[in-house]
Amino acid sequence: MTDATALSGAYRTLLDVIGKVEPRICQAIRDELTDQRASLKLIASENYASLPVLATMGTWLSDKYAEGTIGHRFYAGCQNVDVVESVAAEHARELFGAEYAYAQPHSGIDANLTAYWAILAHHIETPALTEFGSRNVSELSEADWETLRARFGSQRLLGMSLDAGGHLTHGFRPNVSGKMFHQRSYGTNPTTGLLDYDALAAQAAEFKPLVIVAGYSAYPRRIDFAKMREIADSVGAVLMVDMAHFAGLVAGKVFTGNENPVPFAQVVTTTTHKSLRGPRGGLVLATKDYAGDVDRGCPMVLGGPLSHIMAAKAVALAEARTEAFRDYAHRVVDNARALAEGLLKRGGTLVTGGTDNHIVLLDVSSFGLTGRQAESALLDSGIVTNRNSVPNDPNGAWYTSGIRLGTPALTSRGFTTSDMDEVAAMITDVLKKTTPTTTKDGKPGKAKYELAQEVADGSKDRAAKLLDLHPLYPGLTL
Ligand code: DSN
């Protein structure tokens, strides 16, 4: 990571300036750095952006409205935003080998909404408008619009189920994606926990979706996107891939060939802040056939682009082109494998039996705990994780039976495979010594637990030793 010594003075000045206006915010910024430095962060979707990326976000680019597209804005004076968006899109196209890139989405859900509406518009609106003759959109009658709305609302989407590792935005009913489409979800093989391509093909043949979504937020394995495209083609569906979790592994050339979604999917979405290690935001990549539809993200589902964030995306994408980033991406996967092996050899149970990406999904029911209890006990012990459902989870999405672990953040700090073995030892030591408290009827509860203070303190000491070996933003003193 960037040597931060030279930036320390600048950050101190900035914080003084902020502190004079609102000292509580200045303090929260300082405290967040202290907390991030002092925690063993294993949340699979988090990372540490570089100081150039962080610095790019804090500029006056934030002050400009620029609704529209590059060179075609609804506000005057957008020449610098045009440069910013063009550079971000150019880096994204080149890095991922995509025909088209759209840098405006503010988040992952915005990227997915942009993609869904682009696919709908591409497949529904154009034929439907043709059917209505050569009339301009503004000439359509209310009855014509009713017909169009009915067609949009009757389309089908098939995405991975939440408990198999899919994401809320892949058709989960409480999310807008599960309301704007007729949705069904595919799971994983109940014995192996792996994606079952034959079962998915059969389900797609029966359901006939317009969109098949591939991608995950808690599946610890790679996907064969050539097979996914074959399945989509066999039923005339569009393949959309949400690579938010593994975009850094694609950019870093860990996922190549059939594991790289870009040559196979018509539309690919991502966030930029997970394994890609950029600012909090989204991106959409597409083939040129879908470019015009994706370009309508604003005003279809997006408001004014966040120019300061698009600028930071450009900086992060420039970083991701380097040999150093490729090395980082490979180490992320090596570290996840070392963490998985460390847990397995100490008696842990892993969904799918291991990992070949950046995620490890530990089933904590073998420790007699719910995910909620394990998450809290680990937090007390200086280890930050998040609870997560396992396939067909008997404890549901709130208490869960799993803990999701990820290596992008610790790898950014320089953690090695032997450090990850020590992390695995710390996790199992804490979980083996955590016991659920019993409810009034004598059964184990799902939320409360007991963990001796000396166990938690001992684990925090071990965490501090590892963290001291790999400081965050070394040289940055506030
Ligand atoms: N919340 C992100 C994650 O943790 O995977 C996905 O949106």
Automatic annotation (TrEMBL):
Key words, A-Z: Amino-acid biosynthesis, Cytoplasm, Methyltransferase, One-carbon metabolism, Pyridoxal phosphate, Transferase
Catalytic activity of the protein: (6R)-5,10-methylene-5,6,7,8-tetrahydrofolate + glycine + H2O = (6S)-5,6,7,8-tetrahydrofolate + L-serine
Cofactor(s) required, per the database record: pyridoxal 5'-phosphate
Stored PROSITE patterns: SHMT
InterPro entries for the chain: PyrdxlP-dep_Trfase, PyrdxlP-dep_Trfase_major, PyrdxlP-dep_Trfase_small, Ser_HO-MeTrfase, Ser_HO-MeTrfase-like, Ser_HO-MeTrfase_PLP_BS, SHMT-like_dom
UniProt-listed Gene3D superfamilies: Aspartate Aminotransferase, domain 1, Type I PLP-dependent aspartate aminotransferase-like (Major domain)
GO biological process: glycine biosynthetic process from serine; methylation; tetrahydrofolate interconversion
Cellular compartment(s): Cytoplasm
Record PTM N6-(pyridoxal phosphate)lysine, positions in chain: K274
EC number: 2.1.2.1
Site for Plays an important role in substrate specificity, residues: H273
Enzyme class: transferase
Domain (Serine hydroxymethyltransferase-like) ranges: 20-123, 155-427
Protein family: Belongs to the SHMT family.
Function as written in the Swiss-Prot or TrEMBL entry: Catalyzes the reversible interconversion of serine and glycine with tetrahydrofolate (THF) serving as the one-carbon carrier. This reaction serves as the major source of one-carbon groups required for the biosynthesis of purines, thymidylate, methionine, and other important biomolecules. Also exhibits THF-independent aldolase activity toward beta-hydroxyamino acids, producing glycine and aldehydes, via a retro-aldol mechanism.
Oligomer status and interactors: Homodimer.
Protein's name according to its UniProt entry: Serine hydroxymethyltransferase
Native organism: Arachnia propionica
Name of the gene encoding the protein in the UniProt record: glyA
